[in-house]
Amino acid sequence: MKKRKISCFCENEWEVEVPDSVDLDEEPGREAEILDGTFLSYRCEQCGKVLKPEFPMRIVSAKRGLELYLLPELERDSFSRGKAEYRLDDTERGRVVIGYPELVEKIKILRDGFDDRVVEIMKFYLLEKAQADESVRAYYFAKLSDSIELHIYGMREDEVGVSKVPLRIYEQIAGELEHKTNEEFFAPILEPPYVSIQKTYREAQK
């Protein structure tokens, strides 16, 4: 545990104890908290507002081969410059996630048995087709009977777009994955530990 300071909009400040790492095998209830958004939520005793600060944290599950390292969204630029600190034991299968939404997404992808590299390629094609700029983000949401549901943020103010991509598209991309990982364009996107179109999407739109 590490003590972290939280500052509310009402200017109230207090300290909380935040774990440096979470083992989902030892604390199975933590996964439900992450997925329902109650994990790392703190209520200000002065004004009652619920805050969701992001802190660096390692999240693992040996049973599922899951190893994630959460970096706060505020450290995205530092990570892109190679300045952010993180620790992963498995440099190939371990993943860095930046920001809470990416943490939730990655756990859902692995839980549902998908390859996150294939999902990122799907997201790229979806955003490219929509001619979205770098402010638009797509996230994996759920596995349906014959499709994968992705949610898109930023296309329209205060609206969430929903796209259901047929599973056959996922399977088609999965069959091309080895080739994609060697392509000049997709190689940086698929290179661990940060497997995400966010690494190069802005450059791709220029």
Task: Give a quick summary of the entry.
This protein is α+β, with helices and mostly antiparallel strands. Helix content is 30%, strand content 27%. It has helices at 29-36, 76-80, 100-111, 116-129, 167-175, 177-180, 186-190, 201-204, and strands spanning 2-7, 13-18, 21-23, 42-43, 50-51, 57-61, 66-71, 95-98, 137-143, 147-153, 160-166.
Q: Output mean pLDDT.
A: 93
Helix share, percent: 25-40%
- Provide a count of the helices: 8
User: What summary fits the major beta sheet?
Assistant: 4 strands, mixed
- Structural category is alpha+beta
Helix-strand sequence? EEEHEEEEHEHHEEEHHHH
Overall shape: it is: globular
User: Looking across the biggest beta sheet, what order are the strands in?
Assistant: 3-6-7-8
Fraction of residues in β-strands? 25-35%
Radius of gyration: 18 Å
> Low-confidence runs (pLDDT<50, min 5 residues)?
202-206
How many beta-strand runs? Answer: 11
Distance linking N and C termini: 43 Å
